[in-house]
Amino acid sequence: MTTRNDLYKIFGILFILLIATVAVSWVDLGEFNFVIAMAIAITKALLVVLFFMEVKYSGQTTKLIAAAAVLWLILLLLGTIMDIATRHPEVMPLG
Amino acid sequence: MSEHPSPLHEQFVDMEQQRETAEIGMWVFLLTEIMFFGGLFCCYTYYRFQWPEAYAAASHYSELWLGATNTAVLLCSSLSMAIAVHSAKHGDQKTLVRYLWITWLLGAAFIGVKAIEYTHHFEEHLFPGPNFLFNYPHPEQTEMFFYLYFAMTATHALHMIIGLGVVAWLAILPKRGRFSPEYYNPVEITGLYWHFVDIVWLFLFPLLYLVSNK
After folding, report:
1. CATH architecture of structural domain B37-209
2. Which residue in A33, A41, A65 is closest to B24 by CB distance?
3. Residue B129: its pLDDT value, please?
């Protein structure tokens, strides 16, 4: 079970990550800006799911449903990205 | 009829089974919500790949500091919601009610900041439709970004407003002695909902505000 002290610690980490994501956005890293921003967002979401939503301490069924949700989202986005990335605009114009 | 009916409903074996059923039910609902928001995120991804320049140009008009403030406000509200659930679990009614109201106020502050942003966008003619005005390259593609911006943030704000209603309802209920360490399912599953809406914003913030700061 998450203790109240844990909640404050997790909040502290979330806040530092927020400052980091804004700070990184001021530095021009090309494609990596997006990668880092998403990596930070995923880390933040994971902390909220595991500790604020207490999935870390939940039963197997809850863990399964949470994992299924993530899997669904990955399939949806991956399928879309693969479609865009593998088209040849000269043969098959986008959109 | 007794004055304090047992919080255990007859279809459950014990309190723990009843609690777990509520938790799983909420997670199944959240799964459908992820599918729902997933469609919007998918649409965003598609057009971002197609028109990266238009997205970069448009994101100059989203107000980074208001977005960052709102992210901070939501993180604080998630903390206070987590403390509220923690207090409910330990039977501390006073702390529970206090932190539910803190959560409510932070949620309302979020909506307030969002309203200020929307007002600015309307004044700058960035709302898609006949009044949309963008005197830079790619106006049509930029309009698409703003379609998605408004669709995603308005859907998120609607979820916040529903959350505010539920949190206020919970804050009033415990005064009638409804919740105890054995029964606080409504607080727990409202917490799950609140954190979920927070997570949606954690992704909306970098996608809508941090596309390009150059």
Report:
1. Up-down Bundle (1.20)
2. A65
3. 84
